[in-house]
Amino acid sequence: MTLISRRRFLASGALAAGTMTFGPGLLREALAAPATAGASPYGPLLPPDANDLMLPPGFGSRLIARRLESVPGTSYSFPIFPDGQATFPTLDKGWILVTNSESPSASGGGASAIRFGADGGIASAYRILGGTNINCAGGPTPWGTWLSCEEIQRGLVWECDPAGVLGAEPRPALGLFNHEAAAVDPVARRLYLTEDEPDGGFYRFTPASYPDLNSGLLEVAVVDSAGMVTWRTVPDPMAAGPTPTRQQVPEMTEFQGGEGLWHDRGVLYFTTKGDKKVWAYEPARGRLEVLFDRAQAMDSALDAVDNVTVSSAGEIFVCEDGGNLEIGLITPQRAVSPFLRFAGPNHEGSEVCGAAFDPSGTRLYLTSQRGFPAGPQVGPVPPSPLRRRLRDSRTLPAGGRRRAIELPRRRAKARWTPEPRQRPNRPAAHCERPKASPPRADPQARSPGKGRGLRGLLGHIAANHRQSGGQARRGRCTEATDHPSVAHARNRA
Predict the structure, then answer these.
(1) Topology annotation, domain 3-491
(2) 140 close to 472: Cβ distance less than 8 angstroms
(3) What residues in the chain have per-residue pLDDT under 70?
(4) Amino acid 201: pLDDT
(5) Which long-range contacts (CB under 8 A, 24 or more apart) does 66-69 make?
(6) Beta-carbon-side half-sphere exposure of residue 460 (alpha carbons within 13 Å)
């Protein structure tokens, strides 16, 4: 299959429609052999473009925003340290890109949103979460909200309205710990969470009344030598006592720095940075397996792991925290190759973050968290010849899609009563954090407009739950120059 036909096949959505699904069956077969270095199905990386991105043939990039500068066409100043991202379709055939800021509240921590029109142009930009600290990754929900995770000791998960109309709300029932990412299994109606600690846990949350996240059961994984997972109740999810959640279940399996997490067609993929592994957990079988292990694939380009997402073709995209500053690609045949790379001194010491596909699957958003792409901003990428094909032939993944969001003009921001919080000790492999203790939000506080909040979002957004696969995707981050950017790579084949 040629590169062009492969791209068309991927973007057409035929795979997501179920005619050729890379689901658990293929996973079981493929995991019999470890992922190893291989050739990229998109071809070799070309020399850096004007935005310092090395891309495969047929792809171009566009700079979307830079830290502390106004998002083009708006008066909104883009925050520093952009990290986890996701996109949400809108009723006008555009979409919203949500971006976390991995910084203290005093310097813009929280989450922001950029709204795009149907033509990919920027329509507006605004804040959807403020007064929080070190918001690293998170995850989209099938009912159209964004879960923003605080990566600090006793951190919270905040549920946010991508449209910025309703105030964000804390979800303490999901546990108070060093949160990294979250993902929803829409079939089993459960959430999964990773913890960024050298001895962190892998958690499961079962809402008492799905999709209401105000109450439910938090459990942590215990994995036996055969990879079978059992779940133990966390006795004190809100850590009211002195014992952190990860130490409340003695038999808990420890994971070395949980990072990105993504659900796709019945499988949860997550990464651990301490041992540079990509994991795959299949809830229906209760089995956890290692999809990629750097120690067993030393010849592969992927030598650091962080955020993760999956395309409609079942290809796994893994962002690097350091390493070669690449987004690595793991194919369904378990060949590992680089998909793109940040190059040049402007990105030294950075991380790639927030890999996220737009709803059409033709744009991949990403960030260089502390990078500053060289050269002038490039203009819009020429329209893709695939767009008409996408409109005419793309079909829904099994189980439906995330509900599109209607965008009222008015926005309400969350207001919280801060109290002093102590900054966590960060593993050496992660980004440096400010030394000042960030202010802390009250987990019992309510957002403005009590009684509405994001619970009311189920009335504001039609409750059509996206069930599986073909989900919107995420973005990336870096470190060195303290000039982060958000960019997207687009297929021009």
Answers:
(1) Neuraminidase (2.120.10)
(2) yes
(3) 1-34, 372-493
(4) 98
(5) 66/372, 66/483, 66/484, 66/485, 67/482, 67/483, 67/484, 67/485
(6) 19
Cα–Cα distance measured from residue 475 to residue 237, given in angstroms and rounded to the nearest whole number: 29
Ranges of each domain in the chain: 3-491
Q: Which residues, at least 6 apart from 275, have a Cβ–Cβ distance to it below 8 Å? A: 256, 293, 294, 295
For 313, the 3-state DSSP assignment is: coil
- Residues 182, 146: Cα–Cα separation, whole Å: 10
HSE-CB for 198 with a 13 A CA cutoff: 7
Q: With contact defined as beta carbons under 8 Å apart, do 261 and 139 qualify?
A: yes
Whether residue 300 contacts residue 321, with contact meaning beta carbons closer than 8 Å, is answered with no
* Cβ within 8 Å of residue 241, ≥6 positions away: none
Predicted confidence at residue 405, as pLDDT, reads 54
Q: What is the largest CA-CA distance in the chain?
A: 59
Tell me the C-alpha to C-alpha distance, in Å, between residue 266 and each of 10, 22, 26, 142, 183. Answer: 19, 10, 12, 14, 12
Q: Give exposure, 402-426, as e/b (b: 16+ Cβ within 10 Å).
A: bbbbebeeebbbbebebeebebbeb
Determine how many CB atoms are found less than 10 A away from the CB of residue 49: 18
User: What pLDDT is attached to residue 488?
Assistant: 56
Given a contact cutoff of 8 angstroms between Cβ atoms, the answer to whether 55 and 47 are in contact is no
Which pLDDT score is estimated for 190?
A: 98
Q: Measured between alpha carbons, how far is 108 from 245 in angstroms, rounded to an integer?
A: 28
Q: Look at residues 176, 164, 178 and name the one whose alpha carbon lies nearest to residue 454.
A: 164
CA distance 257 to 276: 9
CA distance 236 to 234: 6
CB atoms inside a 10 Å sphere around CB 215: 11
